[in-house]
Design goal:
five-stranded parallel beta sheet; two-stranded antiparallel sheet; binds adenosine monophosphate; binds zinc ion
Length: 270
């Protein structure tokens, strides 16, 4: 099936009202770039948001690509500058969090992921967006599921899907992943065919060894194998009974959280 048809079907499955304002989380990489390109092409009401992580040349190239894309697509771009908003670059924030952790240091990508999610939810609510779209693809999803299985905690994937399955809450903005069923290689090729402005460099801080090992293993799999992981895990997880989860508001920042203090504040305060 063609990439465009796959994405159209995914969007149909998640039923998004066309008037709904969707904020696309743009990293400057190929996945979120293709996500924005297709959502715009399919007539959705989108705007872009980029978190400038202040990571030297890499961040400058990402920002340049994002600006170019938003100009070409004629969409509004919101920039969240982590240095001015949070006081330091992502590298510094992350290292200071890791230095304070006595045991079981959290991996770079895990820390960055928690902080980015926190920013995206808060900013999209401020901007009155109905949804956040990210560029997560089939490879990312299969990797995360396998990692969760290897950690002995497949239930961590319960909220994952082309649309988040968290409990509904007015402060929680649903996240959608239009490329959920598309393999990374197809996205790379599509971005090249369409000559989209993309920074193809990898994040210099993505050195989570466990994820890299899983990724290397996944590179030996066929598209069908990867699809099986994602589709069968979705089927399996849809049958798992969920405990009576409730949403609380973080005592420090007020953001929705499963605990009294949200993950981001827990990290920053340690
Ligand atoms: P990653 O965790 O880096 O693989 O990114 C997954 C998705 O998160 C991307 O496809 C983007 O939609 C979003 N994202 C990552 N980095 C940024 C960023 N700096 N600014 C905005 N969105 C981002
Ligand atoms: Zn908090």
């Amino acid at each position: 099936m063609k990439l465009e048809t796959k994405v159209k079907n995914t969007l149909k499955k998640i039923k998004i009202p066309k008037r709904n304002k969707i904020l696309v989380a743009l990293s400057g990489g190929k996945d979120s770039t293709v996500t924005a390109y297709l959502l715009k092409r399919f007539g959705y009401n989108i705007q872009g948001i980029h978190i400038d992580l202040s990571m030297g040349k890499y961040s400058q190239k990402c920002l340049k690509a994002v600006r170019e894309l938003c100009r070409d697509l004629k969409i509004k771009l919101h920039i969240y500058d982590i240095k001015s908003e949070m006081g330091s670059s992502m590298c510094y924030l992350r290292t200071s969090i890791q230095e304070k952790q006595v045991k079981g240091k959290l991996k770079n990508c895990a820390i960055c992921g928690v902080i980015k999610k926190w920013i995206l939810n808060r900013e999209s609510r401020k901007l009155k967006a109905g949804m956040i779209a990210t560029g997560h693809n089939l490879d990312d999803e299969a990797q995360t599921y396998l990692l969760n299985v290897l950690k002995g905690a497949p239930k961590l994937s319960l909220t994952s899907g082309p649309i988040t399955k968290n409990i509904k809450d007015k402060k929680f903005i649903p996240r959608i992943k239009p490329l959920f069923y598309v393999v990374e290689e197809d996205i790379r090729e599509y971005s090249k065919v369409k000559k989209l402005p993309v920074n193809y460099e990898k994040c210099p801080c993505a050195i989570d060894s466990y994820r890299i090992q899983v990724r290397e293993f996944m590179n030996t799999l066929s598209t069908k194998d990867k699809e099986n992981i994602v589709k069968n895990s979705e089927k399996l997880l849809s049958k798992v009974k969920r405990n009576n989860e409730k949403i609380l508001y973080c005592e420090i920042c007020g953001e929705p959280s499963r605990n009294n203090i949200c993950k981001k504040c827990e990290l920053i305060k340690t």
